[in-house]
Amino acid sequence: MTPVGTPPSPPTEPLSPPADPLLSVRDLTMTFPGRRSRSAPVRAVDSVSFDVAAGETLGLVGESGCGKSTTGRMIVRLLEPTGGSVTYDGRDISHLAQRELRPLRREIQMVFQDPHSSLNPRQTVARIISDPLLVQGSAAVDARRRAVELMELVGLIPEHIDRYPHEFSGGQAQRIGIARSLATSPRLVVADEPVSALDVSVQAQIVNLMERLQRELGLAYLFIAHDLSVVKRVCDRVAVMYLGRIVEIGPKERVYTAPAHPYTRALLSAVPLPDPVAERGRERITLLGDPPSPAAPPPGCTFHPRCAKAQEICRSEAPTLSVATPGEPRQVACHFPEAA
Ligand SMILES: Nc1ncnc2c1ncn2[C@@H]1O[C@H](COP(=O)(O)OP(=O)(O)OP(=O)(O)O)[C@@H](O)[C@H]1O
Ligand code: SF4
Ligand SMILES: [Mg+2]
């Protein structure tokens, strides 16, 4: 069944995937039923494919509502995909039952955007951090000892272990969320806008912490954010999403210095440059209108109503994600990608 206006994207095969990836996502799709009985289904994520290698950070960026969180939630299996697959360490986990998922929950963890609302206000930090271990069957005394270690690791004062979340600032609360995510020694952390709710000065501290933990523990991150400057700092590769699909994916250096998709160019042109002279002289690309609803996506290239480069073919034919410049590990979904 094809429940929404455009046909599903053709399957895509990422070019030069990391050898032996830790995570492989292929044609991942999530179609939600309409919120009201007669409203159209919402294809929030549409045939998304990418890999993440052990120890690597893939950034996932795009405007609000483009499907970033839904993608992350399918990878940690808070949501079951309606199409495609999630393969972790060589095993297809897309449709595992809750019982089968339990050992996997040690390996794949999630950090959420709003630290305070993601922590139970009625639980102490000791309980919050040790909860994933207790769920996995650890003894209470061992779990508490590990919680102390984790508090030290993320820069919290272990003596505060019996305090409640409201006694901590936003940055400290996010450190608690990160400590909780590390309790079971995961190899992959899906961080969904981990710094978006924090003050700018605190954002840098949390980003530094995440980078240090990655170096020390060899973590792989799927780092979701709408702030392109934060993603530029942390990621090795970046994927740009628009209306449920990846429109450009590749090494950070290529995507940031020579964006090939008109949407990536527009997003990047809105990021302020540190050099005031460069900032004054730069070209700004204004996106026309708001993103369309994923319940009624435009035909052809779903970006065409907002694209200054759109031509006749863009209104009828969806571009496939493919190599823009022969030989380079970057893919773009556009009939007329910008020459590198
Ligand atoms: N449970 C649900 N039922 C119906 N629609 C949903 C549901 N969850 C998300 N959606 C819709 O799916 C689309 C993608 O949502 P998602 O939260 O993944 O976007 P996002 O890129 O994370 O946005 P933001 O930057 O605002 O966090 C949106 O149109 C949203 O309204
Ligand atoms: S396919 Fe056409 S409408 Fe879509 S981004 Fe490329 S030029 Fe713009
Ligand atoms: Mg989100």
UniProtKB/TrEMBL annotation:
- Report the GO molecular function annotations: ATP binding
The record, for Gene3D superfamilies, names: P-loop containing nucleotide triphosphate hydrolases
State the protein's name. ATP-binding cassette domain-containing protein
Composition bias (Pro residues) maps to 1-20
Does Repressor appear among the keywords? no
Tell me the keywords, alphabetical order. ATP-binding, Nucleotide-binding, Transport
Q: What PROSITE patterns does UniProt report for this protein, alphabetically?
A: ABC_TRANSPORTER_1 (PS00211), ABC_TRANSPORTER_2 (PS50893)
Query: Where in this chain does the record put each ABC transporter domain?
Result: 23-268
Return the annotated region ranges for Disordered: 1-22
The UniProt entry, under InterPro entries, shows: AAA+_ATPase (IPR003593), ABC_transp_ATP-bind (IPR050319), ABC_transporter-like_ATP-bd (IPR003439), ABC_transporter-like_CS (IPR017871), Oligopep_ABC_C (IPR013563), P-loop_NTPase (IPR027417)
User: Pfam families from the entry?
Assistant: ABC_tran (PF00005), oligo_HPY (PF08352)
